[in-house]
Specification:
Blueprint (H helix, E strand, L loop, with lengths): L1 H10 L1 H6 L4 H23 L3 H15 L3 H26 L7 H23 L1
Helix pairs in contact: 3-6, 4-5, 4-6
Amino acid sequence: MWVRWFVDSSLGEDVARGLGTRVEVVRLVSTTLAVLLAGAAVSVAGPIGFLGLMVPHAARGLVGPDYRQVIPLSAILGASLMLLSDLAARLIDKPLETPVGILIAGIGAPFLVYVARRMAVRD
């Protein structure tokens, strides 16, 4: 069954419908599964794990699918975002320090939901 779904989805939505696949159900299940897997990864690695999940998507959106450019840009963007988040965490509540994981999770959760919904609509 899953092999048929994979072949149907790789050939396009019209072909998948023609072969009997319920595209809306597959789209809903795959989006839900992506969000749950991202949540599970973050629950294991902590809120800073959002950084590793969202930065490659942002880098790919900036330079395209060429991994020779995506990987170095991901490293630079990840370090920059972490540095800026740490700086903001120190400045938000001046005498105290806000946990940087809260800021990363506040940025990462909406971003990953956006990416999951965009991928579901695109497929």
